[in-house]
Design a protein that fits this description.
The chain has helices spanning about 15-45, 50-75, 85-110. It contains three helices and no strands. It has about 120 residues and is mainly α. The protein has one domain.
């Protein structure tokens, strides 16, 4: 069982990796998947795929951003300290920056669906 208590955030493992890499992976998947299905959406008029894809990408990145925030808050030591608490605080701050940038990319790339309509 994984603990998300603020004081007992794990200093390694899946949650840390998810918090640091989910925003990047989600943005890449968002970019590649939308480029792959744009012709299908145009030909068949299934515009809802873009709305669903944007929603999923935003939610996954927000979860990673929230986990990064928990990591940044849970570290009681300074990020310059060579302790596990300092390390988790540093990784949390890095995750906040990484996920915020990827969230902006997803929102900017996905915003075109509100302005451009398909011919189908």
């Amino acid at each position: 069982m994984v603990s998300l208590r603020l004081r007992a955030f794990p200093d390694r493992g899946f949650l840390v990796w998810f918090a640091l890499t989910a925003g990047i992976a989600t943005w890449l998947l968002h970019l590649v998947a939308f480029a792959a299905v744009v012709e299908y959406v145009h030909d068949h008029g299934r515009f809802w795929i873009f709305y669903a894809g944007n929603g999923v990408a935003v939610v996954v990145t927000l979860v990673a951003l929230w986990l990064s925030w928990l990591m940044a808050r849970s570290g009681s030591d300074s990020e310059e300290a060579g302790t596990p608490a300092g390390r988790i605080r540093f990784l949390g701050l890095c995750g906040l920056l990484i996920n915020a940038i990827n969230l902006m990319l997803i929102l900017l790339e996905g915003s075109y669906i509100y302005f451009i309509r398909t011919g189908g």
